[in-house]
DNA sequence: CATATTGTTCAATATGTACTGAACGAACTG
DNA sequence: CAGTTCGTTCAGTACATATTGAACAATATG
């Protein structure tokens, strides 16, 4: 099934992501970049995973939006190189937190829709929403904690000025 | 779109569950039972949600396995009545925790597969697994805290009888 | 300008699985 | 025993969406 340990890791992370309701390829890309020491181009990733460049393009940007991958621009190079962020834990938790908070808001809004005549339902729904909200708070707090513990990155995008001066 | 606030809640929870990679109907059933003061029969639930009894049967038992619903047996009554557990938060967190722990185990195992000659990869993968494991610990701890804070049920709803083998 | 390379967009397809209907078994009644 | 009612199982279908191929835009070179 798995030829190499690399592939095993890539496929496992892909399956885990899929089980969480995400595209499998997104997880595979992340795993691929985590294993790689150097940033990889879109084409390299696509070939490694045996998928289309279109998928990689879409999903690597989704990962970027979640704060899990970064583009590494090289001066004088048009090509986009991608790397996994050094400590993805904080971003992962923060993404979860945001989802929870959105859910909390939606549910709380519904709780308000229940008039005072349905006090019982209103309370139960509100309680449900509160749970989501406190979960969001909790996860966010934890993410902060992790990010503090980990060597902090500056938010500025990393630029390799590895310019080889052409003759 | 939504006729009643009840339906709005039911559909919203269904969508949230679906976004998490679960069957939508499972979330709808849970929402339905949360809104209901009295336990509901399988047929009632099916009619309320406009879905087949087969789906309700399957999903309500999935919810039970996760500790979110309970069967209420009545003496001299063959019919199964279902209710949502009083405080589903703990069970929700515990289910998440278990998923995280399974993921952690799988990843750690892969980390071991990397020989010492691939120290860099081994470390990165192990770190990844550790994150999942500490997340699992964290969630479980929190679940305990919530369950302690909430009025304890007299009947212990332990679902942990299933021995968790790593294999 | 033409040509080459790279990344994105989007309609079409492939794929997984949620959901259903029908058949079945179990538990009760008369 | 035959006749109901209820829950589960399972093969088949429907449906959502992940993924692709091709067209396109953008950027560079000469």
From TrEMBL, chains A, B:
InterPro entries: ArsR-like_HTH, HTH-GbsR_regulator, WH-like_DNA-bd_sf, WH_DNA-bd_sf. GO terms for biological process: regulation of DNA-templated transcription. CDD domains: HTH_ARSR (cd00090). GO terms for molecular function: DNA binding. Keywords: DNA-binding, Transcription, Transcription regulation. Gene3D superfamilies: Winged helix-like DNA-binding domain superfamily/Winged helix DNA-binding domain. Transmembrane segments: none annotated. Coiled coil: none annotated. Pfam families: HTH_20. PANTHER family: HTH-TYPE TRANSCRIPTIONAL REGULATOR MJ1563-RELATED (PTHR38465:SF1). This is MarR family protein. It comes from Pseudooceanicola nitratireducens.
């Amino acid at each position: 099934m798995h030829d190499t340990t690399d592939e095993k890791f890539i496929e496992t992370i892909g399956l885990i992501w899929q089980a969480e309701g995400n595209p499998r390829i997104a997880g595979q890309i992340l795993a691929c970049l985590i294993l790689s020491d150097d940033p990889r181009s879109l084409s390299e990733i696509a070939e490694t995973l045996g998928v289309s460049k279109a998928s990689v393009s879409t999903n690597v940007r989704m990962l970027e939006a979640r704060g899990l991958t970064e583009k590494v621009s090289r001066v004088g190079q048009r090509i986009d190189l991608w790397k996994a962020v050094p400590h993805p834990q904080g971003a992962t938790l923060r993404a979860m937190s945001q989802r929870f908070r959105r859910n909390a808001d939606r549910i709380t809004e519904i709780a308000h829709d229940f008039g005072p005549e349905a006090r019982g339902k209103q309370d139960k729904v509100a309680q449900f929403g509160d749970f989501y909200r406190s979960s969001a708070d909790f996860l966010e707090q934890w993410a902060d904690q992790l990010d503090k513990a980990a060597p902090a990155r500056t938010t500025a995008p990393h630029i390799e000025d590895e310019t080889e001066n052409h003759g």
